[in-house]
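Reminder to self: tokens first, then the designed residues, so the page reads top to bottom the way the pipeline ran.
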């Protein structure tokens, strides 16, 4: 027992101080993409052609990027001859409305808190049932990481439960395959109202790489209403945590801005 206590003392405090302090991110972390249309050569479609999910498009107003489809790969940045796209280290990506994920330059909105009664109900205690609707286990793994001592999701009053009947809402990953469509609907119906739905990852938002596949349903919105969208493939645990805390009002909209967001070298 003494050895255990000494080892624990040597380890010190392992839980990160987020959101009180800026998080430490890996040097090669790929956060929010940023576009500079002034650098785009006339008629260039290199990035559009390179994108595996059709997240990029060109119109009269210039390039636009749908973060809900984006896999955060580097195919577009490598294909762009003018360096008009870059990945920053901005990890705060969650939004309340699907259309807010379509950007012209960079992500301009972040998730706002629940309104009125919902905030009073869920602001201090939120129980979620996680549903993997055909996911690859990437997003599921990063969701599970939030329960470790490093992130300690429970300190914010947010916990995952085994039954939808004990839940306040669903956290959905995966593109919603045909085999999971009915199961997702039944799980949603089993959650007592009022309830929330959170879509985590490109698959749950748009179908990701399985977009328009005959055996997939292009994300959670095709089956249930979604209250929070957290993009990524998969989203970093801090991106998920930031979105959840903004939703329940533990981080106010506009809070946590810490100056310029550098690009990845």
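Designed residues (265 positions):
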């Amino acid at each position: 027992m003494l050895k255990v206590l000494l080892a624990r003392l040597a380890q010190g405090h392992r839980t990160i101080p987020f959101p009180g302090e800026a998080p430490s991110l890996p040097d090669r972390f790929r956060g929010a993409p940023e576009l500079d249309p002034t650098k785009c050569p006339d008629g260039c479609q290199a990035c559009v052609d390179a994108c595996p999910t059709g997240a990029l498009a060109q119109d009269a107003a210039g390039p636009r990027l749908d973060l809900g489809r984006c896999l955060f790969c580097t195919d577009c940045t490598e294909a762009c001859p003018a360096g008009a796209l870059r990945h920053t280290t901005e990890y705060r990506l969650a939004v309340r409305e699907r259309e807010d994920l379509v950007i012209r330059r960079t992500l301009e909105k972040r998730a706002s808190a629940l309104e009125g009664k919902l905030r009073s109900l869920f602001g201090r205690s939120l129980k979620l049932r996680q549903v993997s609707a055909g996911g690859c286990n990437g997003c599921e793994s990063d969701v599970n990481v939030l329960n470790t001592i490093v992130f300690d999701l429970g300190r914010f009053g947010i916990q995952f439960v085994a039954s939808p009947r004990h839940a306040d809402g669903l956290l959905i990953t995966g593109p919603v395959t045909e085999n999971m469509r009915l199961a997702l609907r039944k799980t949603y119906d089993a959650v007592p109202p009022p309830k929330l739905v959170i879509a985590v990852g490109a698959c749950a938002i748009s179908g990701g790489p399985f977009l328009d596949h005959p055996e997939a349903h292009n994300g959670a919105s095709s089956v249930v209403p979604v209250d929070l969208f957290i993009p990524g493939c998969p989203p970093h645990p801090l991106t998920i945590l930031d979105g959840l805390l903004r939703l329940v009002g533990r981080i106010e909209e506009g809070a946590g801005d810490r100056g310029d967001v550098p690009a990845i070298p």
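Residues 256-262 have pLDDT under 50 and may be disordered.
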